[in-house]
Write a structure and sequence with these properties.
Layout: H1 2-24, E1 30-33, E2 37-40, E3 42-48, E4 54-57, E5 63-69, E6 73-79, E7 84-89, E8 92-98, E9 104-107, E10 114-120, E11 124-125, E12 127-131, E13 136-140, E14 143-144, E15 147-150, E16 156-160, E17 163-164, E18 167-173, E19 176-180, E20 183-185, E21 187-193, E22 195-200, E23 203-219, E24 222-238, E25 241-243, E26 245-252, E27 255-258, E28 264-269, E29 274-276, E30 279-280, E31 284-287, E32 294-301, E33 304-306
Parallel strand pairs: 4-8, 4-12, 5-10, 5-13, 11-14, 12-15, 13-16, 14-17, 16-19, 17-20, 18-21, 19-22, 20-23, 21-23, 22-23, 23-24, 24-25, 24-26, 24-27, 26-32, 27-33, 28-32, 29-33
Antiparallel strand pairs: 1-2, 1-9, 3-6, 6-10, 7-8, 28-31, 29-30
Amino acid sequence: MRKYFVTGLYLIIIGGLLLGGGLVMNAEKTIVWNHGFHISKQIDRTEDVKKFDRIKVDSDANSVNIERGDRYKVHIVGDKLRSSDFYVSDGTLHITGNKQHSYSDIVSGYKNPNITITIPHGVTLKELNLNMNQLSMDVNGIKVGNLVIANGSNGMLNFIDSDIKNAKNIELDASDIEFEQTDVENFELKSATNSDIQLVESNFKNSSIKTTNINFNAYKGILENLTFATRNGHAEVNESTLRGHNSFEMKNGSFSARSTNVDGLDLTTVNGNVSYYDEGQGKSYQHNADEENLLKVNTINGSIEIK
């Protein structure tokens, strides 16, 4: 036992000396162990790649961004020992995630690489295929023909000034998606747990959200023909315009709409209450329920508020 204790103490001392030397020299920031000490450093590299119109990101790529630029290229900043691989095959850019999984951190600095993918202006991605497992991604100014999200947890996906034509059979687990100034059509969420969808100044058209646990928030957007159904969750629609038939059904959860433009209302709750501009309406309230632009809300155990 004493031998192991002394060995461990020596390893700590050596690691501290290596770290101190690296910091003094403004160089290495990460020390790892894999049958011996390995010292890594930060890398910052940009490579041009072949033309592509599809992107596939696997489960080990933690931070990936997509933006417009003047050519096809990939920029990586991060820990050299964990630098991601990428390649283009049959028109698809593959981001394969971290290369090394056998290292145990002694001192961590630049652990996960940050990847920025650039595509030329005017190019539409036929498909964006993502594994959401701990993925953090910003998509800025990109047109996407088909969005595919594989099952994965603890992800965060943010679309800015983009356009999405189809997103079918989406599954989320403890993950968030935000659409900011983005047009979205044919979005279908089939399952979600402890997840959020947020729209900011975005258009959501001909879409369906049917799941067991989701929170939905729309702010200064346009909802057109949205079907929303959840066992547990909440929905808020603020300063938005509703077109066509928008339906919200919740078993355990509440609905609220503020400063929202819609022609007709059909509101019903079983065990909650309905409030229309701060006036209680009991279990139901209808106004121009035959209008083409209709908001229909039904809850079992939850309140409905319109202001």
